[in-house]
């Protein structure tokens, strides 16, 4: 038992599953309410059935109780058929025919708005009008279109309960009256029987609590069914349908629903409730006993209990915008990275305010990104190089992206170069950053923070003549690795080595090869790059590389010639020979090497402190 | 010009400010609608006034146009007075007296619900009832209480426009009728004139668009005025008031409002609109021309335009729960940290699956935390030590914390030790983690990832007898720093040094002191700790510390004796003396030191790669 494995092999119960099971147990004894009886077939439902299903936006479904028992969808269908109509017929046409105001009346009210439109698509008049629009457009195909759409929302093929359909048709005089009234005002056109058949059939589709949860999750997931991955409705249709569900989905209980629960929902007299909270979850409940409004009693209680337990109310958002900036500094307060020569260090130190770094974190939304932009309103605080490190950013919303783009395009002066760091290929925000770049936003993008800082520092050093000495030949006396050696010792070492010229673009050291040589750079510029081709540092004349060969330690990075590079190359064997004859000098070099490495350890530790701090 | 400062000195214009100014410019030419005239004083308003203010939840206020022009608050007061009543009288009493359903009628309708309660507190009947409840409870102080509350929401002292108040009183017969009707049913008690005076005065309080924005931001900020920092309403009152605003705040335009804008709002016939989006913003608009519903025409257009531009609709949430897990690994895939002895390494390698790390990121909400819990349902995947690194977590919501607690308390088996890492004192989630701990949740908390891994590894090493040799005396031959030395050289070095015994709990090395000695640990255990008292590594017999003294490099960490610790102490002078007489051995030691340091650089680089990768 090496890994302390627990003995159980059944899946562990997550807190949400536990909560759902608890709620199911708690409300099972609740026997208030009556099974719908105005359609004889509905009265046959088993009043004790009770199922709760929760589907997440990543496609997991939690279930408790009778989640596989089929029942007719009834009015829950209205939400999905409305979304279908918006997508298929266009919002203009649908919105012209059906209002979006709560009616304040029972679901089967025949009353219309003052302009003779149905109040909304969640009451019978609006739903019949909606089915009528589809029947007009699709003719005999209308119902199959609806059934297919309901099936795609559920992620499986749904069928009609023919007995219920016949029962609906036989007892549907009130709906017949509504349909004829609508035709009076042009709300529906064509054959009323065909329209009503479409509507009655749509109400008679069989679903389970699990189906309703997945349907809800398809709404919550912005129109993509998270179980099948299929796009089942447009963003627009989803957003508008949820809005109507909020104001009118729970019959004449809407205000109370918003007050107490605050999750868009639609109930049906079959005992089903579908609820959908964007980016959070879909909820499906089945329990056939209804209250006076026609809503499932246990369904309402379950929604309330879940909303209370987990603050699901749509207005319950709690974010502190300030947490989106994890750090904000320039290099006056943070030391620059290692790998710079003293004269470069001196240029960078004089201009330590030229680079400002904002480390962003979490979600860049409207509110958080606005906060970020406000940190950059003082012209004196906007540097030549602004590095925005997105490494810890998990999401950028559309609105956040709009403000981000506006920041770079309009807010920052032209003298500021914006650099985005921390966006590797697998970053969750890579697509948005790429889109921004493709839109022509003037920005430099680097996969890592280090690469971004290096690039910005190089720009500063370059602008201030720091690379002018690339072309000047450096002798060995300035080499930190050779500090303390006498002129004679330096001359002897120099004689021992070989002068080698590398063309620009040559790989001088391959990290995967065994360490065999140390190089002293005499002229030109080389860069040290990680396995992932990230430039770790830039070396100029007077600096050495490959020095771990002196102690037979493996390479950790490649070295490339950025320009033509002249080097004094000394092999490990040559150095051993030098050591034989120059013990004092060799000991000195080893000590210098230890000092250089100790400095690197310090720098790396400081960097880790900053990253984890 | 060392820092490339731009020449401008006025604040840079953020994208949101730019958008607000653009919208202001766009709608300024809009002259539709009429100034309210049913109260003669209101008719005197300048119809061209137009101000837009946006207040953020961190207390910044953006303004465009006439945001400092005073006007009477009118029905906007209803929202705040309702919140006040909920807080002062208790929700039970208020909710028993006033409904929460939209009325579907004009704001001044005299119609009541079937149970003779006003439909909601946003129509005149409900607001009069609300003021009546306050008048009943506070008597003559009622209005001053209301004025003070409005002032606290606005963050400044507000005054009454006496001319408007007199005008309201003289023309208030409809409201008088409503008040008497309410008294018939016990909806208000006591002197109707006093109640109406309170109500008319409340409507006549002078505010600016800026005031409405700050009031809105107080709602958006969960009851804390973000400008003054004062708590002005409870969470409960804020949430319930916003819910009623959503369903009934825009008079009989509610459904359309939810459909098109989706931000809780309240308008007044003075031309003001207050809107509040939780955790996002407060919005205040002033433009006196009203549409047929009594809503400011330019105000509605501004709300719509802002909502469209920045997806402010309350149902417009877009999060991918999957981004909350930045990494998920055990030590089968990631090498353990440095600083372990070979026998410890071997224990750890055999049990590399005993530690699993989840690096969490962004916001731990209901949905994301549920996703995290679902990653831990497979009993075979739940290790002895589960390290949850919260370093990149920006927020934990209440619901997220509930699931987090449930995960540790109920889901994970007792054989799993949960370790929370990355929570330093200044972490945004430190309070929640502390609260969890105080509630008795069995969890270990470490400020850094490294400290957490070290601790968990120590536990594993300890459980498998890894520290049994702490008590066994190690001779110098096993020291990596002395590898390759002859027995004679070791004996000579040993003779040179001093055997020192440190009590448990002694600080052996102070990072701030100059490096003067190297220590070879002979018996016991010591730990290397950072300036912030984070344990960087644990050393056991056979390991050295303080070795940078050999190359005169500054200390970077403290070393403490965990147990009684026996060391061979060698000063820098003694080592120099050894070097004189033992050149070969000293050279060897220097080379060993370079090798040790090269290993540390490699490890640190790998760690940085992981942190930034």
From TrEMBL, chains A, B:
<feature type="binding site">
    <location>
        <position position="168"/>
    </location>
    <ligand>
        <name>substrate</name>
    </ligand>
</feature>
<dbReference type="GO" id="GO:0006537">
    <property type="term" value="P:glutamate biosynthetic process"/>
</dbReference>
<dbReference type="Pfam" id="PF04960">
    <property type="entry name" value="Glutaminase"/>
</dbReference>
<feature type="domain" description="STAS">
    <location>
        <begin position="345"/>
        <end position="456"/>
    </location>
</feature>
<dbReference type="InterPro" id="IPR018490">
    <property type="entry name" value="cNMP-bd_dom_sf"/>
</dbReference>
<dbReference type="InterPro" id="IPR015868">
    <property type="entry name" value="Glutaminase"/>
</dbReference>
<dbReference type="InterPro" id="IPR002645">
    <property type="entry name" value="STAS_dom"/>
</dbReference>
<keyword id="KW-0378">Hydrolase</keyword>
<dbReference type="Pfam" id="PF01740">
    <property type="entry name" value="STAS"/>
</dbReference>
<feature type="binding site">
    <location>
        <position position="175"/>
    </location>
    <ligand>
        <name>substrate</name>
    </ligand>
</feature>
<dbReference type="InterPro" id="IPR012338">
    <property type="entry name" value="Beta-lactam/transpept-like"/>
</dbReference>
<dbReference type="GO" id="GO:0006543">
    <property type="term" value="P:L-glutamine catabolic process"/>
</dbReference>
<protein>
    <recommendedName>
        <fullName>Glutaminase</fullName>
        <ecNumber>3.5.1.2</ecNumber>
    </recommendedName>
</protein>
<dbReference type="InterPro" id="IPR036513">
    <property type="entry name" value="STAS_dom_sf"/>
</dbReference>
<feature type="domain" description="Cyclic nucleotide-binding">
    <location>
        <begin position="481"/>
        <end position="576"/>
    </location>
</feature>
<feature type="binding site">
    <location>
        <position position="251"/>
    </location>
    <ligand>
        <name>substrate</name>
    </ligand>
</feature>
<feature type="binding site">
    <location>
        <position position="75"/>
    </location>
    <ligand>
        <name>substrate</name>
    </ligand>
</feature>
<feature type="binding site">
    <location>
        <position position="124"/>
    </location>
    <ligand>
        <name>substrate</name>
    </ligand>
</feature>
<dbReference type="Pfam" id="PF00027">
    <property type="entry name" value="cNMP_binding"/>
</dbReference>
<dbReference type="InterPro" id="IPR000595">
    <property type="entry name" value="cNMP-bd_dom"/>
</dbReference>
<dbReference type="InterPro" id="IPR014710">
    <property type="entry name" value="RmlC-like_jellyroll"/>
</dbReference>
<comment type="similarity">
    <text>Belongs to the glutaminase family.</text>
</comment>
<feature type="binding site">
    <location>
        <position position="199"/>
    </location>
    <ligand>
        <name>substrate</name>
    </ligand>
</feature>
<keyword id="KW-0007">Acetylation</keyword>
<feature type="binding site">
    <location>
        <position position="269"/>
    </location>
    <ligand>
        <name>substrate</name>
    </ligand>
</feature>
<comment type="subunit">
    <text>Homotetramer.</text>
</comment>
<dbReference type="GO" id="GO:0004359">
    <property type="term" value="F:glutaminase activity"/>
</dbReference>
């Amino acid at each position: 038992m090496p890994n302390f494995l627990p003995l159980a092999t059944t899946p562990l119960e997550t807190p949400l599953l536990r909560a759902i099971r608890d709620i199911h147990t708690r409300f099972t004894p609740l026997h208030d309410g009556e099974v719908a009886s105005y359609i004889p077939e509905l009265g046959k439902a088993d009043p004790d059935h009770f199922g709760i299903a929760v589907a997440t936006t990543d496609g997991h479904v939690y279930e408790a109780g009778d989640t596989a028992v089929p029942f007719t969808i009834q009015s829950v269908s209205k939400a999905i058929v409305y979304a279908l109509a918006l997508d298929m017929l266009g919002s203009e046409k649908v919105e012209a025919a059906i209002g979006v105001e709560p009616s304040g009346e029972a679901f089967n009210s025949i009353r219309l708005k003052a302009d003779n439109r149905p109040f909304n698509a969640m009451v019978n008049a609006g739903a019949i009008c909606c089915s009528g629009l589809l029947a007009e457009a699709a003719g005999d195909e209308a119902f199959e279109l609806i059934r297919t759409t309901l099936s795609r929302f559920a992620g499986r093929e749904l069928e009609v309960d023919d007995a219920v359909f016949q029962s609906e048709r036989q007892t549907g005089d009130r709906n017949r009256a509504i349909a004829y009234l609508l035709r009076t005002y042009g709300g529906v056109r064509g054959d009323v029987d065909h329209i009503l058949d479409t509507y009655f059939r749509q109400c008679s589709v069989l679903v389970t609590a699990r189906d309703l949860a997945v349907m809800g999750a398809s709404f919550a997931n912005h129109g993509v069914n998270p179980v099948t991955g299929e796009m089942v409705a447009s963003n627009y249709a989803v957003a508008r349908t949820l809005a109507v569900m909020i104001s009118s989905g729970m019959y004449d209980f809407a205000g109370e629903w918003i007050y107490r629960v605050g999750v868009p929902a639609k109930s049906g007299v079959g005992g089903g409730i579908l609820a959908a909270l964007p980016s959070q979850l879909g909820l499906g409940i089945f329990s056939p006993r209804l209250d006076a409004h026609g809503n499932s009693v246990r369904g309402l209680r379950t929604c309330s209990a879940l909303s209370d337990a987990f603050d699901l109310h749509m207005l319950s958002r709690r974010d502190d915008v300030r947490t989106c900036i994890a750090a904000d500094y320039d290099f006056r307060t943070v030391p620059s990275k290692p790998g710079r020569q003293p004269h470069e260090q001196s240029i960078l130190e004089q201009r330590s305010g030229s680079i400002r770094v904002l480390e962003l974190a979490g979600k860049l939304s409207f509110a958080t990104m606005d906060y970020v932009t406000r940190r950059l309103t003082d012209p004196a605080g906007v540097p030549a190089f602004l590095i925005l490190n997105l490494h810890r950013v998990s999401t950028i919303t559309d609105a956040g992206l709009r403000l981000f783009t506006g920041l770079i395009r309009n807010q920052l002066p032209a003298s500021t170069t914006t650099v985005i760091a921390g966006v590797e290929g697998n970053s969750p925000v890579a697509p948005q950053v790429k889109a921004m770049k493709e839109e022509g936003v003037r920005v430099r993008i680097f996969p890592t923070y280090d690469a971004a800082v290096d690039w910005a520092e190089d720009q500063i050093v370059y602008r201030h003549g720091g690379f002018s000495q690339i072309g000047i030949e450096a002798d060995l006396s300035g080499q930190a690795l050779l500090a303390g050696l006498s002129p004679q010792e330096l001359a002897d070492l120099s004689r021992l080595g070989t002068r080698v010229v590398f063309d620009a673009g040559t790989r001088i050291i391959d990290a995967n090869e065994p360490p065999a040589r140390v190089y002293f750079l005499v002229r030109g510029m080389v860069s040290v790059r990680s396995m992932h081709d990230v430039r770790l540092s830039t070396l100029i004349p007077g600096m050495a590389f490959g020095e771990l060969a002196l102690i037979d330690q493996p390479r950790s990075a490649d070295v490339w010639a950025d320009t033509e590079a002249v080097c004094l190359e000394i092999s490990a064997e040559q150095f051993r020979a030098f050591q034989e004859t120059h013990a004092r000098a060799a000991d000195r070099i080893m000590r210098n090497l230890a000092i250089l490495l100790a400095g690197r350890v310090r720098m790396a530790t400081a960097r880790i402190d900053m990253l984890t701090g």
